[in-house]
Design a protein that fits this description.
The structure is a homodimer.
Chain A (H helix, E strand, L loop, with lengths): L1 E5 L6 H10 L3 E6 L2 H9 L10 H12 L3 E5 L5 H11 L3 E4 L6 H4 L3 H25 L4 E7 L14 E6 L2 E6 L7 H20 L2 E7 L1 E3 L25 H11 L3 E4 L5 E6 H13 L7 E6 L2 E4 H14 L6 E4 L17 H4 L9 H14 L37
Parallel strand pairs in A: 1-2, 1-4, 2-3, 4-5, 5-8, 8-12, 9-11, 10-14
Antiparallel strand pairs in A: 6-7, 11-13
Helix pairs in contact in A: 1-9, 4-6, 6-7, 8-10, 8-12, 10-12
């Protein structure tokens, strides 16, 4: 198949490109290197040293004997994207090409606008490119479980049957996004659903949980092929960040009470899920939503897990509860359905001490690259202070104190 | 009160400014005249001759003895908006400053991007301006009933209590927007709800039905104060368009079967609803949604009503069913709650022959200004043809034929 990967230089985009290439697909990637630029602007970097895209591609070509085409440009540049799509004529497009950080979107008005501009206008452009150039192409779009927030009912996969005043309908699952980044992903879902209903596009929205891990089958053992690994307050996700903290002797920073529960998955499972979605495309006019995670954990449970594995290796981590910089519930109901990818054949790689141990070993090799000042959270969801205005009235299952 | 009206040169924004000014409030308006520019680009214009904003304001000052301040600029220009908000220090902001047309958003990729850019980034900027400069200010935002689409259950006012697997929660009402313009309004609602939950902003989202009529208490009898009146395929709404068609001897253009049912209201009621919302502000952290319409009609019923009233005046209108340029259900369940504004004291001006007759009289005076070639619909929702991929599966209560 011809597969086009948007954001193909990123944490997930790059190993996804290698996976499809390894399987013999014809792979092209698009990236504008915004993630590298944002890191330079913050004075941070990937823990793992990563080569420039062209050098990565050359290394892959040398070791695997397979070519990957690359295009430098922005998804939010419509004419550029049209050119790429009409040249590549992909049968599947995997869209990772967005600003992926919640804290980044909450830093300032400018960062919020940049996030929604990049993500919403980018995806909107993409929908037109598909409609006008490759209408049968299957769009596999990376969404996030954070679109749903923490409602007081079970979370379903994209749609829910609502019974109301003696009638019923299957409708989009109501969303309570937790940052302006998460809002942008909700906007994307709304636009893509519209394009499916009105233009007949085929789309799969992968509402992904929090990804952890660094190595995949294709990158393990060859440093030139490593993907990036972020641990800073802006781009680092919680488990990856805890592992770095344990290795460098920084306290594990639990935000607030630590009861925040989310879905998680191994980076290897991300690749497998995307593969499964591409191999079984959505029908014409179908907008599928898969909840892409394998296990639920609370932040406190992850801190304990990392603490235990690190102690086995002789580290002496401390767990520190910080004032929560986010506005979110710290104790809440959480139960999210995630059966559709299992039905397609996903065999989850579950999280255990062994995986954490292997991450700690890898981090140990690069620990001198850590920028320590970039770890503690400085970006506040509500700069005026306070825990926001959550409550049962608007679908928040714990009533947070006001003000 | 100090009231800032965004889009204060528009169909609703201008008479709203006069209303608040007449009531003795301190009124400032913002506009970038995008609506006038879009009309120039299409070679169309308002049926009613309208003065430039500064001349309208001078006429009002002369006749009413009240001043209105004006600022020329775009809501999507963050620094400009910050300057206006920090100078005016409004206690209420009424936000009409968006691209308001569904067909406009469906014309091309460029127009779709312009719509979502203008509306979503504009409102996002506004939320930051309020947060950072006037956090107690009440945002009254014009949304649309079209955000809900036509689900097979009763439409509630913004939120719905969902019972699911033995649990329940009150959650945002699921949305099925019918155009990329309607999608942009859904995005706005998501962003505003977020800002209320996280920053404690006070907001009222007025999900307005289709507005008809032209005269209000403040504009009637003084042509210099008239608001614009659009009848073209892009900016003209259905009842206004039918009235113009009846007067100029153009068939009344019913799209498809004409069973499409929507909520409608008189422009006088729009002003009253906005006034009621401003006079009873939302609480800190509250995101209220009011469904702002007074009656439901099908398109076919409106054609009959205009046909009857026009015949009384000696016109001889024809009703013509055109192939529907939109992808929408033409027969569907529709029952939308709209009690919150009635509870605040709204006394609806219901639609009848008398109102239609007065509109026909007014249109007769300006009929030579009609650009006839701009009336028939040319903008297709799905340029590839076909009626889209609606169906009960995704909350559409009639199964439209595919393809």
């Amino acid at each position: 198949m011809r597969v086009l990967i948007l954001g193909g230089d990123g944490y997930l985009g790059w190993p996804t490109a290698l996976r499809f290439s390894a399987k013999g697909h014809e792979v092209a990637v698009v990236d504008n290197f915004a993630r590298r630029r944002w890191h330079r602007e913050q004075g941070t970097d990937s823990l793992t040293p990563i080569l420039p895209l062209e050098e990565r591609i050359a290394a892959w070509s040398g070791s695997a004997g397979r070519d990957i085409r690359s295009f430098e440009g922005a998804v939010e540049d419509g004419p550029f994207l049209d050119g790429v799509v009409s040249e590549v004529r992909p049968e599947a497009i995997v869209h990772y090409g967005e600003q992926p950080s919640a804290p980044f979107s909450m830093m300032s008005r400018e960062r919020a606008v940049e996030t929604q501009q990049t993500n919403v206008i980018g995806t909107l452009n993409l929908l037109f490119s598909i409609r006008d150039h490759v209408p049968a192409c299957h769009l596999v779009k990376l969404g996030t479980m954070g679109e749903y927030g923490t409602p007081n009912i079970d979370i379903e996969e994209g749609f829910i049957e609502v019974h109301h005043k003696g009638r019923s309908d299957t409708l989009p699952f109501p969303k309570l996004p937790g940052s302006l980044y998460h809002c942008s992903k909700v906007h994307d879902s709304t636009n893509i659903h519209f394009a499916s209903r009105v233009w007949g596009l085929r789309a799969t929205d992968l509402n992904q949980g929090v990804v952890y891990g660094v190595e995949t089958d294709e990158t393990a053992g060859d440093e030139r092929l490593f993907t990036r690994f972020d641990y800073d307050e802006i781009f680092g996700t919680v488990l990856n960040r805890f592992c770095v903290q344990a290795v460098i002797g920084h306290p594990l920073t639990v935000y607030g009470a630590g009861g925040q529960t989310r879905g998680f998955l191994n980076i290897r499972d991300t690749l497998r899920c995307v593969e499964l979605a591409v191999e079984s495309p959505a029908d014409e006019g179908e907008f599928r939503v898969f909840n892409q995670f394998t296990e639920q954990f609370s932040v406190g449970e992850l801190a304990e897990l990392v603490d235990g594995a690190a102690r086995q290796l002789g580290y002496d981590p401390q767990v520190r509860h910080l004032e929560n910089p986010r506005v979110e519930l710290e104790q809440h109901y959480y139960n999210a359905t995630h059966t559709k990818l299992l039905d397609l054949g996903l065999e989850p790689s579950l999280l255990g001490e062994e995986l954490v141990t292997s991450m700690l070993h890898l981090i140990e090799r690069y620990k001198d690259r850590v920028v320590k000042r970039a770890i503690d959270p400085r970006t506040k969801w509500n700069p005026a202070g306070g825990r926001g205005f959550l409550g049962p009235r608007h679908g928040q299952s714990e009533l947070a104190p006001r003000g």
